[in-house]
Amino acid sequence: MVNNTLDKFPPVIDGKSRYNLESGKYLKVWQGPQHPGITGNMSLELIICGDEIVDCKTHVGYLHRGFEKLMERRKYIQCFPIVCRICVPEPDFNEYLFAAATEELAGIEIPERAKWIRALNLEMARLTSFLMWVGGQAGSFGMGTIGQWTVTLRDYMLDRFEELSGGRIYHMYMLPGGVRADLPEGWSAQLLDTLSLIEKTLGDVELAMMHNAVFKKRAVGLGYIDPAMVEPYGITGPNARAAGIKRDIRKDSPYLVYDQLDFEVITGTRSDAYERCRVRIAEMYQSIDLIRQILDRMPKEGPFFQKLPNVLHWKIPAGQTYLRAECTRGEYGFFVQSDGSDKPRRVCVRGPSYTHAVALMQRLAVGCNIADTAGLMVSLHTYPPEVER
Amino acid sequence: MNSLKESLSRQYNITQWKEQHRGLHFCMAEKSQARDLIGHLRDVQGFGHLVFMTAVDHIEEGCFHILYMLHNYETRQDLGVQVEISRKGESMDSIHHLWPAAATYQQEMREMFGIDFPGSPGIEENFVLEGWEDKPPMRRDFDSLEYSEKTYYPRPGRKKYDTREYMKEKLYPSEAETW
């Protein structure tokens, strides 16, 4: 919030800070695009007065690959190697949503077992992504060791993904009609072992991070999100839940098999960097629990793929739809419009970072210490690739 | 949602109301009424969440459809309001006063489709593309393949294959007749 009563903040005219760089009072600093504290390829143009940020502007475009445009030139099945690349740490949500949107437009119902396997896949992706995030959050406050622990754990999860789908990062496992392959023999037991290991180490992470005096001192109060900001800024996911907003798409508009699983929406009381961290760590435990529930309750046998017509000649009836899922950062959605041809007319990806990394980040950074920018950004859990698809 | 449709129809010219699936409806609105309608949906009907904004290029009909996807957290309903505007340099009213986050979507649409939103903060600034002088790239008449070949010319000595023919001959020779 720009406070004009304080001398150090420049006057705001027509919604913009008007500072005079030549006055010697302000300094312009670029953080990124190559900076260890930046979550991916984006940069922040910071105007600082002393060590305090008085204005912030997000710049994206370093990672633009034109996925939405490229998809207009490709058949539906040829889009799958593209959609997963929209979000690197969590590609499965893209696969699921694009596959589900295609199925809805084509009028295809997938087998029950495929729904369970998809939910399993999405929860694994959530846990894997959180493991990467917690390392970044700890690292941004100078606790690099925690990042080494969690990246190792993430690698174990990637091993499970590799055994399941053949790919470590990009899986292309969920296709229209269901999933590409069945669970390998003995794989579920290995996954349960990995989960036990993660659960045990998460206890250590919590102890070393959440009870660390330096972390508490820096994270408490950093990047406070008032509940009144949630709707104007389109804030979703843990950033909103930490502010006490009880919203989770898995609970509110259940998709796949989430209505058959037992879980509560985790909320906080005051959405600052510390509280958001607490909510996310609690959601990691929740994700572990959900994976166990899915493995326990899913049908052990049955088809996992609905046969499709020749996908290279597959014309999808004209129509449009929007589907959403709860990813680690909030609402992830796909709008797909078909004109009746074999290629999508328009695909629009709604990533939560679109608002979190731009409008919200620009507002929350003002008044922060420059050394806390990285911590603030990671606490919003932003991924630039989904901003510039 | 039928009551919402009736209520909106009394004040606004709403057409092509369609239920896509449970909880998701699409409709068309007139450009002159769009900003009022969206404000009404937010303030009176409880659609407080702007999920996203985008445009679809209907080059054959010479128009863009601007889509405002709104969500009501109470009723868990989505409403996609579409507004038709001409492709020929027509601008659209900004809604950044309703949702600050809308300015980012509008900035992107100006860059990618060439649709102007006068008064939207930062609308003149680059968003993703920097120094772009070609036609807006998300328009249907922008050919990404042609641009790629023009900008990143083929390397000398590199063979070029027709993907379809190559796949037919090399990967699926036994199924070639079914293609």
**Could you give the order of strands across the largest sheet of chain B?**
1-2-5-4-3
Helix run count of chain B: 5
Low-pLDDT ranges of chain B: none
- Terminal Cα span of chain B: 46 Å
Helix content range of the residues of chain A, please?
Answer: 40-55%
Q: Please describe the biggest sheet of chain B, giving its number of strands, its sense, and whether it closes into a barrel.
A: 5 strands, mixed
Keywords:
heterodimer, A: 389 residues, alpha+beta, 3-stranded antiparallel β-sheet, 10 strands, 42% helix, 14% strand, disordered N terminus, B: 179 residues, 5-stranded mixed β-sheet, 5 helices, 24% strand, extended
Structural account:
The complex is a heterodimer of chains A (389) and B (179). Chain A is α+β, with helices and mostly antiparallel strands. In chain A, 42% of the residues lie in helices and 14% in strands. Chain A has helices spanning 67-71, 80-83, 92-106, 112-140, 144-165, 187-210, 213-219, 238-241, 249-252, 273-297, 353-365, 373-379, 385-388; strands at residues 12-13, 16-17, 27-31, 43-49, 52-59, 174-175, 178-179, 319-327, 330-338, 344-350. In chain A, a hairpin with a 2-residue loop joins strand 4 and strand 5 (52-59). In chain A, helix 5 runs antiparallel to helix 6. The relative contact order of chain A is 0.18. Mean pLDDT of chain A is 88; it is low at 1-5. With 179 residues, chain B is of the alpha+beta class. In chain B, 29% of the residues lie in helices and 24% in strands. Chain B has helices at residues 2-11, 31-43, 102-113, 144-151, 163-171, and strands at residues 15-21, 24-29, 49-58, 63-72, 77-86. In chain B, strands 1-2-5-4-3 form a five-stranded mixed β-sheet, covered by helices on one side. Chain B is extended, with a radius of gyration of 21 Å. The termini of chain B are far apart. The interface between A and B is large, with 41 and 39 residues.
